[in-house]
Design brief:
Elements lengths: L1 E7 L12 H6 L3 E8 L2 E11 H16 L3 E7 L6 E7 L2 E6 L5 E5 H22 L7 H9 L3
Antiparallel strand pairs: 1-2, 2-3, 4-5, 5-6, 6-7
Length: 148
């Protein structure tokens, strides 16, 4: 089973009702990520990955791949030159990065399911720890634009 795991690097207790989009997506909710499939793992234990932005972008990227039987989408980390690539070949999806020799292969439906679960969990965790964020119009618009 393919899984996307994460850990927040810290808690954010600031009033987020009026925070702007750039701050919300890139300065808050930083942490680490792991992609796991069976006994293989690609770790990004960097503690500076903007997890909300990654979730929103990953959801959009998955949607693009869903519309084509063959294709590739790349997530570029703005904080470094690291990339994560997702290549779809019919019902298969391969995940590989610019910083690891490992790659992970899964079915495309398995990839879609993992992305949906990851996005829902990240957003639920953020909302549960940040009272008032659900009233932030920028946050609501970002979720809507990503189809969440």
């Amino acid at each position: 089973m393919f899984e996307i795991k994460y850990r927040f690097a810290g808690n954010y207790t600031e009033n987020l009702k009026a925070v702007d989009e750039m701050t919300l997506r890139y300065e808050f909710f930083l942490g680490s990520l792991w992609f796991e499939k069976d006994d293989k793992k690609i770790a990004m234990d960097w503690e500076w990955i903007p997890l909300l932005d990654f979730a929103l972008c990953l959801h959009t990227l998955c949607g693009h791949l869903d519309k084509q039987p063959k294709g590739e989408e790349v997530f570029d980390f703005t904080e470094s030159d690291a990339t994560v690539s997702f290549r779809r070949e019919e019902d298969k999806c391969e995940l590989f990065t610019s910083f690891s020799d490992s790659s992970l292969m899964m079915s495309f439906p398995e990839f879609q399911e993992a992305v949906q679960l990851f996005c829902k969990k990240v957003i639920a965790d953020i909302l549960s720890k940040n009272a008032g964020l659900d009233n932030n119009r920028v946050f609501k618009k970002a979720l809507k634009n990503a189809g969440l």
